[in-house]
Here is the input.
Amino acid sequence: MSYKVQFKKIGAPEKQLYVTKYKLNNSLKYNEVLIEVIFFPINPADLLLVEGKYATPTKSFPASIGAECVAKVLKVGKKVKKLKVNDIVIPLTRNNWSQKIKVVEENIIKINKNINLLQACMLKVNPATAYLMLNNYIKLNVGDKILQNASNSGVGTYIIQLAKYYNIKTYNLIRRKELVNKLKKLGAYKIILEDIKNNRLLKKLNIKLFIDAIGGSKIDEWANHIQDHGTIINYGLLSGKNIEINPHKVIFNNISLKGFWLSLWLAKMSYKEKKTLYNHLAELIMNNILHTEIDQVYHVSEIKKAVAKANKYKRKGKIIVGFDSHLVNKYNAIL
Here is the structure.
């Protein structure tokens, strides 16, 4: 028997999520792969799904969950060519908070088996989001300036690290002073306390790209710092409010507003492109160019406790969940 996390109705994740047993038939179609999930992170998008606030609402219950994970190959179908037993992989499908999953070969990316498994379980979503937003919208050159809010988020910290790698200057908005040293260590160029009243005194920053995870009325204030023909990319809904920007800036300053959703990008990429993307990001992780702080690793049996911790405003890092007690204890000892 294997274990998976489900929910039976929309509501608070720490109340609705539970662990259940299931039996999976190990027989495979010719192009299928049986994988065993090792670790998965708890992402805001996972919790939004349970709360009924995600882009693709849940329509049938009980429902499975899980945007990403890292796993090991247990068995391959007869015509599977790219994978073999014991390979370390990330599936590009959803519903990954399950101990064993069947996935077709074209939806699995093999990564280097020597990668840190905790970092690898977060590979699919946040590093790819940061990479694609920095590389696939506008041409950024050495010395260019970008602005971002939610700078301490998973995506925000990857943006800081990637921008440092590319020699791009990041201006990072934060709400808490105690984050300053952490973000400086990651490579943040400038850190700004998000107080619009005081920041109106700032000289125009001449930003080429503004990466927004929050929305709301403050976008218009910070758009004053964007150069003509600059771009805003919105990828998050943290404020729960519509983006507000003066049409004058859109019309006369030619500021563009774009949206980013990883699922749409992956849907239009070829398998080769996805493989190249994720192997490049895995290499950056292995070379210590990309890294995410981790607060704690929980066993899946403690999913309610793990979700409650993930929902807390102040944490030291990401919350990770595993299915193997030995591995959970091993990695917690390292943290």
In short: The chain has 13 helices and 16 strands. The first strand starts at residue 2 and ends at 7. The mean pLDDT is 94.
